[in-house]
Structures are given as structure tokens and as C-alpha cells.
């Protein structure tokens, strides 16, 4: 499913109206009908519901006027409050305001701050508030009565249904410059907006409903939209059943270079995740003194002792050993738990220049990169999996600067250095060298623990060696990683989820996603 900014949605609306010929008032009517249906759903257990619709002077307010008329026609007690002056309303919104007044459905104007004083009791006593104040076009600080009114809305306990996007959230950036409506549910039209998916905007959205209002598919297709959600359907399509007449060699050969003194767990978790996701043969190269630890823990993987420094990190002499190990391998994952050492930087730079298979680089592998141009020079594809702190160090920014525009920065770097960039966090972002961007909705705060990223590295690598394109493998791994976390949260709690425990939920995540295929197999 594609995701749009406010500007992209505005262009889709314009083309649908001006070039296809669908009257704007028709789209507004359909939008109002969808919101009214959601309002009825929220009010299903209320005997004599009372609804307050808070409308602005733009098209978002026009949607609210439609909702007001439709709910009133069902016998629901509706109070419509217009924040602003009637004279400012035009176009389709004015048509629907005029219809309300022709039906003798009153619209109360609020023009001054003192008129907000008596509003709190009404808001508290209502059964539902409908936020039709501001739409997807707002940017910057809110002005006029809006900040105080939104604070008032958030102070009461009455549930809020937001129209298209909670007022105060920027559709294109997800930023909240001052305040925003805290909705219980948001009904968004046509396509989800970036501001309803990414944080901090996502915190204000509540339950997100994406509804069809009749925007032509051809208009959407012509926009060349480059951002999309990772959906279960996409994952299911690529997790096809395995053929029965196969062997371990058919599912890829992976080399993992990981571990250092005190961080053998990172290497172990990465290997276990790659095996659990289905890699055929996995070898872990680690500093020689640590190899016995890995041998005792990784009974399903092979291990290999590599040349090490006095600090039990990889020595530069390990380069040739690694290249020898890569003979016949399909992919290398490098970085988890490697520690930090000057020799590591030289070693990794050499590997970037000489390894001809795809690379997945994480954690200390990212910390060792000093020359990003080496990434752009690689002929084989590369995946980088930084969290915001690692990315900040990599490109000499602060974490705050990274968080300021996660999508924009990820896109820029993926193109500039020709990498698949996985920017981890709440709503992990995957940016590709061709400009395509994927947003993930699975996962929860229970994944915010050491070792979780090591699992993801192993899953990406483990899927890729099985023959999936590296971008596809990355998309699937990010989704399944988060889904396993969600299943673990359901059974346990988001407090104290540990990565080794999370691994046990990965098969269930795969099965849940492949359910259509599994049922088909059982029916045979």
C-alpha cells in the first residue's frame, strides 16, 4: 500500500477532479459517508448519542459538514461548531455548509478566545467528538484559536474521531509543531499519509482506518509514488512453499563474521536467527580464543577461529582467512559484536573492496566504516542496518538531526552510497538505491533491547542466501522480526522480552504470514 505526503494527496485529488472529472463535492460526500460509518461504529453501544463536530474553514471542515448532515438524518443529536467565519468558507465546503443551513441544522461559530471558555462542559458531556478542524495541508505552528481549542479537546475524556489526520499533525513529516488532537480513531481517505504512520504523528492517530472514496487507480498509479507500507500480502507472496525434493545446499551458504571479548552473544544470536529463518548452511568466523564458546552454543552452525589481536578482536591477518571462508558462500554478514579497533576499520575497508558477494553490515561493522565512498564503489549490493545513533556517527550528524527527517535522510544516503539502508526504530524505514522506500508497522517497545538488532541481521542474511533478492529479503525480515515481537508481546509482555526468547516466536510469525499457503497444502 502506497503512503503519501499531503502535497502528493493534494495532486491526486486535483487530477481526479480536474482531469478525470469527478466533482469535488462527490468526493467530499463519499468521505463524509465513510466518517459517518466509523462514527456509528464507535457509538454502537450508546443509546442516545450526542456528537459534536468541530469544523474548520477548509475542505476538512467540509467533510465535517457532510458528517453532521448524515448523522442528523439518522436521528443522532449533532452539534456543529465552526471555528472561524462563514465568509471564509468557499467551494465544496460552502456547498455543504449551505445544505446544513437549508435543513435548519444550526452551525455555531466560534471567532474569539473568550467563546472557548464555555465549550469544555459541552465537549465533556458529548459521546463523540469529530475533529474536522485542519486537514493534510497544514505546516508549521498552529495559529489563532486552534492551539487552545486542541488543548481543550485533549483535556476531556470524550473519544475523538479524526477526519483524514488529527489536527496539528503534519501530513508530510509527522511532526507536531505545537499541539495536536489525540484521536481514538482516524479515518484517512484514499491512502495513508506519512504523518499517520511515522512518529510522533502516529501517537495521535489511534486506530487508523484507510477508506476508499473512489479516487481512480490510474490517477494514483501515474504519481510514481515511492513510499509504501510493508503489508502481510507482500510478505506472503514471497514466502512461497519449499519444494519437497530439496537439500540444504538449495537454501544458501552464509558466512557471519562477528563477536569479540564479552560480545560472543551477538554472534550467537545472529547465527541462530539465520538458521531459524531457513538458511541452509551457516558458518561463523570469530576471534580464535572465542571459538570454543561458539562451538558449545551453536550446535547447528559451523564455526571457524580467525586471527585475533591481544584484545580478542579480529586482527588484520584475518582478512585472507575470511576470503578463504567466503569461497562458495552466497553472502557475508559482518559486524555484530566485533568491538572497536583500528585494525577492524582497515579490515572492513579491505573486505568492502574485495568481497564480491552481497554484504549485510551491522553494529560494530558500521562503526568501523570511515570511508563511505567504498560502499558506492561496490558492484554487489550492500545492506546497512543502523539505529539512529549509529547512522548519526556514520554521517557526522546528531541523533536529533537524524530523527528530524528519517525518511528524507535514509533516501538520500541510500541513493548517494548505493546501499539498502535499514534505519531501525519505531516504524523502521528501508530505503533503496532506486529511491523506493518501505515503512514497517510491526514491532513494539519490547524490541528495544540489546541483541534485537543482531537477530534482524541474521534474518536478512538468512533469507537472502535462500535466493531472494536482497531488497525483498530485507523487507521480509524487517516485517517478520517485528511480527515475532508482537506475538511475543501477546503471550508475555513488552517488558523484558529477550532476543533468544524472541527467536522462539519466529516460526509462528512465518506460519501466521503464510497461512493461505499452509491451508492450501493441508487441503491437498
Task: Give structural notes.
With 524 residues, this protein is of the alpha/beta class. It folds into two domains: 6-225, YjeF N-terminal domain (Rossmann fold); 232-523, UDP-N-acetylmuramoyl-L-alanine:D-glutamate ligase (3-Layer(aba) Sandwich), CATH 3.40.1190. Helices cover 43% and strands 15% of the residues. It contains 23 helices and 17 strands. A ten-stranded mixed beta sheet has the order 8-17-16-15-14-13-12-9-10-11, with helices on both faces. Strand 9 (253-257), helix 10 and strand 10 (281-287) form a beta-alpha-beta unit. Helix 10 (264-276) packs across helix 19. The longest helix is centred in the C-terminal third of the chain and has 22 residues, at 470-491. The chain is elongated, with a radius of gyration of 27 Å. Residues 517-524 have low confidence and may be disordered.
Describe the protein's topology.
Blueprint: H1 6-20, H2 24-42, E1 50-55, H3 59-73, E2 77-83, H4 91-102, E3 107-110, H5 119-125, E4 128-132, H6 146-155, E5 160-163, E6 185-189, H7 194-197, E7 207-211, H8 217-221, E8 227-229, H9 232-238, E9 253-257, H10 264-276, E10 281-287, H11 291-297, E11 302-306, H12 318-325, E12 331-334, H13 342-354, E13 359-361, H14 364-368, H15 373-377, E14 382-384, H16 388-395, H17 399-404, H18 406-417, E15 420-423, E16 429-431, E17 437-439, H19 452-464, H20 470-491, H21 499-502, H22 506-513, H23 515-523
Parallel strand pairs: 1-2, 1-4, 2-3, 4-5, 5-6, 6-7, 8-17, 9-10, 9-12, 10-11, 12-13, 13-14, 14-15
Antiparallel strand pairs: 15-16, 16-17
